[in-house]
Design goal:
The protein has 202 residues and is α/β, with parallel strands linked by helices. 33% of the residues lie in helices and 18% in strands. The chain contains 5 helices and 6 strands. It has a 6-stranded mixed beta sheet. A hairpin with a 5-residue loop joins strand 4 and strand 5. InterPro entries: Thioredoxin-like_sf.
Length: 202
């Protein structure tokens, strides 16, 4: 092989390898970038008898499959003393049934969990939730004990600070933290979910 051709081949291989490394770096950085939060208004109506855990979701967010899985883990490990609810945020003017996705079906299949529509994201905004996968744990008096995400990164399942904090609070212990980063699509701008494909959600 002529020397010039050999050098060109080496250069092409180096560029190809650099592109792969850059791609993986970009993907990893995206996975680890949390979403936004809002200042909560803390106007939750207290249950008076039990904790309430609410998970706010975008119906079309692929990353939220992991959040639902972590939510289900909490539901399965807590025996009484807590109400569980999943609120799907729907934008104004959404077509009928827009929220009825596979994610809705997954949440609706969880035993003892209430599923409802948050029209226009009004409840989510009052709770300080701006990103799909944001969970808020209220005590019986309506005071937030935890507000944040349930996953350790975008679309990743497994033990995470949010899940462990909620389980600690529900067990009557002092949670190690009262917040955690949230990883998911923007709740209040649902169109942003259209092209999101980089979630390891299955």
């Amino acid at each position: 092989m002529p020397r010039s051709s050999y050098q060109q081949t080496i250069l092409l291989i180096a560029l190809w390898a650099a592109a792969i490394v850059a791609g993986f770096y970009g993907w990893a950085r995206y996975d680890a970038t949390p979403g936004k939060k809002l200042a909560p208004m803390h106007d939750h109506v207290p249950d008076g008898r039990a904790f309430t855990l609410v998970l706010y979701l975008h119906p079309h967010c692929p990353c939220a499959v992991a959040s639902v899985a972590e939510f289900a883990e909490i539901v399965g490990r807590v025996k009484g003393g807590c109400r569980f609810r999943v609120a799907f945020v729907c934008p104004p003017g959404a077509a009928p049934g827009w929220e009825r996705t596979k994610l809705w079906d997954r949440a609706n299949a969880l035993p003892g969990v209430e599923v409802n529509i948050d029209a226009g994201g009004e409840e989510a905004k009052r709770a300080g939730a701006a990103t799909s996968g944001h969970a808020v744990l209220f005590d019986a008096a309506g005071t937030p004990r935890f507000s944040g995400g349930l996953t350790r990164s975008r679309g990743q399942r497994g033990a995470a600070a949010g899940r462990e904090a909620i389980l600690a609070a529900l067990a009557g212990q002092e949670p190690p933290t009262d917040t955690a980063d949230v990883f998911g699509c923007p709740l209040l701008d649902p169109s942003d979910c259209t092209n999101v494909t980089k979630c390891h959600s299955e």
